[in-house]
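Hi W.,

Here's what went into the run:
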Amino acid sequence: MVRGVRIAGVGSYAPDRILSNEDLARLVDTNDEWITTRTGMKRRHIAAADQATSDLAIEAGRRALARAGLSVGDIDAFVVATVTPDYPFPATACLVANGLGAPGKPAFDISIACSGFVYGLTVASGLVRSGVFSRVMLIGAESLSKITNYRDRSTCVLFGDGAGAVILEASERNCFLGSSLGADGSNPEVLFQPAGGSRYPASAQTVENSRHYIHMAGKEVFKFAVSKMVDSSLTALAEANLTPDDMAYLIPHQANLRIIDSATKYLKVDPEKVVVNIQEYGNTSSASIPLALAELDAGGKLKQDDVVVFVAFGGGLSWGAVAWRWSA
Ligand code: ACO
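Here's what came out:
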């Protein structure tokens, strides 16, 4: 059985605590001017010491349920995209389902770094379209501040925390228009958290050498990001015989304003159609796209039948785009 899928509701949550460029300049040798011109970032939201990723995800999930006018009992399965799970295992989605009041329902995580939301949207839409589930809650949620080294100026200015949730439900109209995903694991060290897994188990030495934090070769990531964002957006649109001209909105992963601007230029999209909130949240990995979608939705900007493209890239390296038709 192949049926349609739509987004029934969107919700987001970001912690209250703000870390500004000025705050960062007090921690490392940096300044507002450098951060603003190189990244577009001004502030990030930072989880409290006792707030884990599931706490952010649960709040975003509650808001999505309220927006959809549904209760948690209406959800058949929970998927969380994250690289900052509460624990290496169990899956954070298990904690989220329980925290929302749905123990016993299927729940699993997707771990593909900043591409998590577009991968998750493809997988969860497939589960709904194939009839396995009627409603799936997909949440991109991250507490990147917990794995950020606030002594490394090349990474600590970039990351923030937050969560965004969508509820996917079976529908007569199909809103999933196309998807293009990819990954290349030939050089994982370009962007990774070296220690704490089975390659370099956590030890006093890995902590001493700061190997439990995010490590990134920023320039390498930058180089591949623009071309992959452009190619995957075009391919996802082409699956539905569409072009960038048909797009009402492009919602890119918020990693760097210069990357977003370059992709906008290559795709020849009107910058007015490109959703940017990087100044407020920084890079929140798999949460960045649903956070931006929730803002767009809350602002009443999405109209029936608008074509929206979600596009991301990140650790793996990985990348992907989904073309979506909005149905209110
Ligand atoms: N403040 C001031 N100076 C800095 C800072 C800082 N915070 N960070 C680096 N610099 C310095 C460098 O030391 C270097 O100085 P030098 O020329 O004396 O050696 C200079 O600024 C230029 O550094 P670059 O690394 O060349 O700067 P670049 O223009 O490439 O910008 C950045 C760096 C912002 C990291 C960029 O490369 C980038 O955004 N890359 C992509 C990152 C990304 O998208 N990551 C996705 C991760 S998401 C995930 O999967 C969790």
